[in-house]
Predict the structure.
Amino acid sequence: MESKPLQPVSKRWLATFLPIWVGQAFSLLGTQLVQFALIWYLTKTTGSAAVLATATLVGLLPQVFLGPIAGTLVDRWNRRTVMMVADSVIALATVGLALLFWTGQVQVWQIYLLMFVRSAAGAFHWPAMQASVSLMVPKEHFARIQGFNQMLMGGLSIFAAPLGALLLELLPMQGILAIDIGTALLAVLPLFFVKIPQPLRQAPVEGTQPTTVWQEFKIGIRYVASWPGLLMIVFLAMIINLLLTPATSLQPLLITKHFGGEAIHLAWMESAFGVGMILGGLALSIWGGFRRRVVTSLVGLVGLGLGMLLIGFTPASAFTMAILAAFIVGVMQPIVNGPLIAVVQAAVEPEMQGRVFTLISSGAGAMSPLGLLIAAPVADYFGVRTWYVIGGAVTILLAIASFSIPAIIKVEEGRPGGKAVLKAAETPDLVLSAAAIDAPAHLPSPGD
C-alpha cells in the first residue's frame, strides 16, 4: 500500500514543539528531585556503599541492555504514544512507592524496583523524544534546540539538589514523590493535543513477510556498521565515556584527599560546572555552531580535555583554579553533546533514529562501569589527579586526530556512495534498497 507524500515542517513548528519541550522540562525536574531524595534516603537509612552502588547499577543496566531493542521498537511504534506510555508508567510506579512510604512499609528492594522501572521507561522515552525533534523542528535549528536542552540540564544540576534538600526538610518522602507524579502528568498533557509526525515506513516487498523486531534491530546494527563516520562517532563516544565518567565519581576524593576540602568545596565545583553548562548551552542556542556540526563537537572536545587537564594539574593550594577548570568543563559539555545529537538528527533518516540514538547511548553507558573498574586502582596507586590527566590528555588527542579523519568530518553528508544495500539477517529476500534508505525524507506538518 502506497504511503501519501509527507509535507514539510510547518512554519508554526515552535507553537507545536514548545509545549512538549516545557512539559518534558518539568518532568526532568521531578525526576531529578526524586533521584536526589531517594539516594539521600538510602544514604541516611542504610549508610551502605554497597546499597548506593547497587542503586546506581539498577538505574544504569536497563539503559545499557534494553536500549538497543527499545530504539528498534521506537522506530516501529508511534513516538507520541511511546512518550505518553513511558511517562505514565513512571507516574504509576511512583504512585505505588508513595503509598508504601505513606503506610510505612517501604523496603530497599522496592526502591530498587522503582529505579529499574523509571530507567526502563526512560530507555524508550529518550530516543522517542530525540527522534521526534528531527520531524518537528527545521534542520537549521537542531543545534540551537540542543543548546536549550543543555542549558536545562545545567540549570537542573545547580538547582535540583538544593531544592531537593529543602523539600526533604518541608515534606515527607511521599510528598516529594507526589511532586514527581504531577510533573510527569504535565509532560503527558501536551501530548494529548499535539500530533507528532511519524517517519515514512517502507511497505514490505510483495510476496515477503513484514520484518520482525529482531530483524529490524539487526538492520540498525548493519546501518551503523555500513557508515564509517557514524561508526567512528559511536566508538569515540564510548572511549570518551570510559575516560571521563570515572572522573565524576572520583571528584569527592579529589576534594578531600588532594585539596583537603569539605562538602562545601565539592558543592562549589559542582555549581561552577552547572553555571558553565548553562552558559555553554546559551552560547550554542544563540550561535548554532559551525556549518559542520561535528567540527563544533570536536572543538568542544578539545576544550573539555583541556579543562580536565587543568583540574589534574591544579596544585592543592590553588582550589580557585579547580573551580575555573570545572566551569570550563561545564561550558564545553553542551558544545560537545548538543551538536553531536544534532548531527544524528540531521544526517540519519528519521525511521532509523531511534535505533541509532540507543546504540550510541547504550554503547557509551556500558563503558561507565568498565571505566570505574579501571580508574579505581589507578587512582588508589597513582593518586586521583592522575586519572584527570590521563582522561584529559587522551580526550584532546582523540579530538585532534578526528579532525584528520574525513569519514568523521563528512559524516553529515550521509553514508559513502549512498548505494549500500542492507539486508535483514535470516531473510535474504527482504532488502531495503538505497531508494528506501537514502532518499531524503519529506516531513509531515506538525498540525496534520
